[in-house]
C-alpha cells in the first residue's frame, strides 16, 4: 500500500491466533509512524454490512473499512467486536487494526448487483473511517465515489480531522445523492480528552473541521456524546462546549449519556480507577443495573442541557412523522423527548415531555445523588 518503505516491518499474521482463521490476510505491518500499532491488511470478501432486523438502529446498512481503532477512546462501544477475532477489547482494539485494503473495489461490485436497492449507508457507526491510518490507506475516496456514482445516500460520523481531505469529494457526491456529515466531539477539556481519547485530534481541531465542512456548503452535526457523569456534565463544561459548537457553525447537536456495554465496562473502570479513583464508587452504583445510565440521570441531564442548547440557538433536529421521535441530520439518529440519542424503536414510556416537565428532585430515585441545577460539579 502507501507506506514509506523506510522503517517498514512485515510480520507473519499467524502471530495472532484469531487472524489465522482469516484466510485473506495479505500481511501485517508495523511502522515507526504508528508506534505500537500493527496493521493487518486483508482482502475483504464483502463491504456492505446488513444491520440485523430488530436491532433498533435507525440505519440498515454500514461499511467498516477498518476493525479496531487507533483513536483508543476508552469508552468506545465497538470494543467487544474485536473479541470475534480472539483479540481483546482493551489494548488489542487500540493497537491491532484490521484494514480491508480492497474494500472500495468490493463495494463497487456489490453496488452493481440488480438486487441492491440504494438504501442509505452509514460509515463511522462502529470504528472510525478517518482514523489516522486512513491518511496512508486512502480507502474513503473510493468508498464515497462508489456510493455516489451508484445513487446510494451516505452518512459519515467521525472524530477524524482527515475528513477535510475529502470535503471536495463529499460536495461532489452531494450533487448526486443525500450526504450527511457529523463530527463526534464529546470532551472539551483538553487534559481529559488526551487521557480518555488519546489517539484523537483535539476538540479545537475537530471544531475547525466542522467549520470547513460548513464553509463548503454542507450541513454538519456535532455528536456531543458520551456525556460523562461527574466529568463532563457540569453546566460550565456543557455551556462552553455548546458555545464552541455554535461558533464553529454546526447545524445541529445531539447528545447522550455514557453507556457501558459489558465488554467496555471493565476497560473504562480500569481507566477510572487510575485517573479518578474518587468516582469509582459513584460509577459502580450508577451503572449497577446494566449498560445505560438510569432514567433519573438521563432526565436530570436533559433538564441541564436542553436549556443550554436553546440558549445557544442550536438545532435539536426535526421531528420524524413516522415515529414522533426527533431525528438529527446525521445518520438518521432518533432522540427521545429529552433530546437523547435513542434507538428509533423506543417505546412510549421513554418518550417523555422535557420542556414542560418539573425539575428533578434534589435526590434522584437511586442511591447516587445528582446535584441540582445550581450546584457545582467536579469542574
Count of alpha and pi helical runs = 11
State the low-pLDDT regions, or none. Answer: 3-8, 318-326, 341-379
Assign an overall shape: globular
Overall pLDDT score: 82
User: In percent, how much strand structure appears in the residues?
Assistant: 15-25%
Report how far the terminal alpha carbons are from each other: 46 Å
Helix and strand content put the structural class at alpha/beta
The residue fraction in helices comes out at 25-40%
- Largest sheet strand order: 4-5-8-9-10-11-12
CA radius of gyration is 21 Å
How many E strands?
16
- Biggest sheet: strands, sense, closure? 7 strands, mixed
Report the order of strands and helices.
Answer: EEEEEEHEHEHHEHEHHEHEHHHEEEE
Tally of domains: 2
Domain Radical SAM core: 55-304
Pfam family, one: Radical_SAM
Biased composition (Basic and acidic residues): 335-353
Keywords: Iron, Iron-sulfur, Metal-binding
Protein described:
By secondary structure, the protein is α/β, with parallel strands linked by helices. 28% of the residues lie in helices and 16% in strands. A seven-stranded mixed sheet has the order 4-5-8-9-10-11-12. The protein has a five-stranded mixed sheet with strand order 1-2-3-7-6. A four-stranded antiparallel sheet has the order 13-14-15-16, with no helix packed on it.
